[in-house]
C-alpha cells in the first residue's frame, strides 16, 4: 500500500539519532511507537505494545526485519506487524515511514495493515 506524504506525517527524529538494529521508543500523538532502523536509509515504525500483553516491544531484540518481545519471545515482522511465532496471535499496527532529507517522518493516522 502506498501512502502519500500529507500533513499527518510528523517528524520524529533525525535518522542519525537511530542506531542500526537498536529499537527506540517514540511518542507520536499519544501513540507509543517502536522505531527500528534496519539500513542506512531504512526505518520501520510499529505499535510499541506487544499484542500478547502490555509490554514494550522497543525493549526487545531486533533480528533482521523482525523484533522479539522480551517477555515471552513472540517475534513480529517489522514489515507486516504479523507475529511469526506464539504466544502472540494478533498483529501490531505498522505505520508508514518517510524520509525527508535526514528527517524521519511517521504517520500514525495511516497504519498500513489495518482497515
Ligand atoms: S507479552 Fe509479548 S509475547 Fe507475551
From TrEMBL:
Swiss-Prot/TrEMBL keywords: 2Fe-2S, Dioxygenase, Iron, Iron-sulfur, Metal-binding, Oxidoreductase
InterPro entries registered for this protein in UniProt: Rieske_2Fe-2S, Rieske_2Fe-2S_sf
SUPFAM superfamilies, A to Z: ISP domain (SSF50022)
Molecular function terms, GO-annotated: 2 iron, 2 sulfur cluster binding; dioxygenase activity; metal ion binding; monooxygenase activity; oxidoreductase activity, acting on paired donors, with incorporation or reduction of molecular oxygen
Domain (Rieske) ranges: 10-106
Pfam family, one: Rieske
PROSITE patterns to which the protein is assigned, alphabetical: RIESKE
Coiled coil: none
Name of the protein described by the UniProt record: Putative ferredoxin subunit of phenylpropionate dioxygenase
Organism: Nostocoides japonicum T1-X7
Amino acid at each position: 500500500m502506498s501512502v502519500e506524504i500529507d500533513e499527518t506525517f510528523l517528524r520524529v527524529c533525525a535518522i542519525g539519532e537511530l542506531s542500526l538494529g537498536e529499537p527506540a521508543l517514540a511518542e507520536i500523538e499519544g501513540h507509543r511507537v517502536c522505531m527500528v532502523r534496519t539500513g542506512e536509509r531504512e526505518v520501520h515504525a510499529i505499535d510499541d505494545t506487544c499484542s500478547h500483553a502490555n509490554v514494550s516491544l522497543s525493549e526487545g531484540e531486533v533480528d533482521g526485519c523482525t523484533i522479539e518481545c522480551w517477555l515471552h519471545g513472540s517475534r513480529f515482522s517489522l514489515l507486516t506487524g504479523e507475529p511469526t511465532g506464539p504466544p502472540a496471535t494478533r498483529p501490531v499496527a505498522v505505520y508508514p515511514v518517510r524520509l525527508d532529507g535526514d528527517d524521519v517522518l511517521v504517520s500514525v493516522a495511516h497504519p498500513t495493515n489495518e482497515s
